[in-house]
Amino acid sequence: MVRLIYRSRSKTKITWDLVQQVMHSSEVHNEKAQVSGMLLATNSHFLQVLEGPYETVNETFMRIVCDARHREVKLISFNIIDTRIFQVWGMLGIGIFDLNQRLETQLIDKYGEQDEELQFPLEEWKALAMIHDIRFMSDISE
Ligand SMILES: Cc1cc2nc3c(=O)[nH]c(=O)nc-3n(C[C@H](O)[C@H](O)[C@H](O)COP(=O)(O)O)c2cc1C
């Protein structure tokens, strides 16, 4: 199994609608491909984790790179893994703009800011730490 992480910049301002559209178009594919993961969005950037079999994660990423809804797709990591962080099929989608202000401020303090919003890191260790933090925050805010 592999885990792939990338960051990209959206063509348009990201709304919760856009996140949902993207997740909707990935639901069927990801389940068939046994791909799980998480899609994070600020107003301008996406950060996505894809976990699953080598072949299907690769194919999925090739398709995503060609998507006209984003650009500047930057690969952060592509590693062999034993266990998934995201055990359940499908994409967990989280809009940082949907978190409460206090949580967003905490994330900005820890990981940095660009254009007055949370900056998604390009270092793998930082991206993974942020993913863990946000996942924990979304668990407790449910
Ligand atoms: C930020 C972003 C993340 C995406 N994530 C996935 C994904 O996890 N799985 C997937 O199949 N498609 C994903 N897509 C959509 C693909 O780029 C593509 O539009 C879709 O797979 C095409 O499906 P279709 O041929 O059935 O219309 C994503 C698109 C964007 C912009």
Structure description:
The radius of gyration is 14 Å and the shape is globular. The mean pLDDT is 93. It has 4 helices and 7 strands, in the order βαββαββαββα. The protein has a single domain (2-140), classed as Alpha-Beta Plaits (2-Layer Sandwich), CATH 3.30.70. With 142 residues, the protein is of the alpha+beta class. The strands form 2 sheets. Strands 4-1-3-2-5 form a 5-stranded mixed beta sheet, with helices on both faces. The chain has helices at 16-33, 54-65, 101-111, 124-140, and strands spanning 2-10, 36-41, 45-52, 70-80, 90-95, 113-114, 117-118. Bound molecules: flavin mononucleotide.
Largest sheet: 5 strands, mixed
List how many beta strands DSSP finds: 7
Low-confidence stretches: none
Bound molecules: flavin mononucleotide
| Alpha carbon gyration radius | 14 Å
Strand content: 25-35%
**What is the second-level CATH architecture?**
2-Layer Sandwich
Q: Find the CATH topology.
A: Alpha-Beta Plaits
Which percent range fits the helix content? 40-55%
Task: Going across the biggest sheet, name each strand in turn.
Answer: 4-1-3-2-5
The global form is: globular
Mean pLDDT: 93
Oligomer: single chain
Beginning-to-end CA distance, first to last residue: 30 Å
Helix run count: 4
Structural class, judged by helices and strands? Answer: alpha+beta
H/E order of the elements? EHEEHEEHEEH
Number of domains: 1
CATH class call: Alpha Beta
